[in-house]
């Protein structure tokens, strides 16, 4: 049997209209779609009706399938001669484990193609009215992961360099480690007055932005009940948001959070940011069919690889 092919496709930052033309073309021809938590449901529906859809989303501390099992799943389906789309939020090679999956495919001599996507690292700040570079404010930026999971000490972030040598910092998946990030930056010389923006569900109708400074962003985020997914932007360019904001959303600042807290205490209520009970991107929004397809696809990988499902 002639092997199929695996396409590692970036689905973009959230808005389904931001997927590339090439990515959408391949998605509409897919026989198998293996997709992540932050892929918009509308994109999943673009696959042919007969296509097998497999949800393998990851949340902090909770993985639907281990990465090794996802690799086996892609290999198994391609060996069956199928056209497999691995649909990832953002860009597959920017903190998307696309490199690991490509390595697994290359090791088995299976054909694959990388279809880049628009990374949330640049798109989400843009939707919040924050350019990462500006001739008067920033000539450099760095993108780092807020997760320490699975990272060797030698690969840990160079906080001294990030604090003093980079104008704009973008932290992905970092809201739970916000206190650690702020602590590292302050300890290595970043000014406590440095502007910060936290952007939740960027490029979607649920986008919310919180702004503050390194000195006060931790209590501000806590008071607003901010939860993932969040893109953090740190640097003077955040100030430009005041004039460049173009996308309609709720705006939360350090000052408005204090007002919210006062009102909450007076009415004995708890203030939290808007968060639907079953957001389509969340684990709560998964259907029973999603779980069944994961089991079926995992079984395929187990049968062919000789390894039990983890």
Provide an overview of this structure.
With 310 residues, this protein is α/β, with parallel strands linked by helices. It has two domains: 137 residues, Cobalt-precorrin-4 Transmethylase, domain 1, CATH 3.40.1010; 147 residues, 2-Layer Sandwich (Methyltransferase, Cobalt-precorrin-4 Transmethylase, Domain 2). The chain is 33% helix and 19% strand. The protein is built from eleven helices and 13 strands. The protein has a six-stranded mixed sheet, with helices on both faces. The longest helix has 18 residues. The chain starts with a strand and ends in a 5-residue tail after the last helix. The C terminus is likely disordered.
Estimated helix fraction: 25-40%
Computed Rg: 21 Å
Question: What fraction strand?
Answer: 15-25%
Task: Give me the CATH fold name of the largest domain.
Answer: Methyltransferase, Cobalt-precorrin-4 Transmethylase, Domain 2
Q: Supply the CATH superfamily name of the largest domain.
A: Tetrapyrrole methylase, C-terminal domain
Major sheet attributes: 6 strands, mixed
Strand element count: 13
- Large-scale geometry: elongated
Overall average residue pLDDT:
84
Poorly predicted runs are: 263-292, 300-310
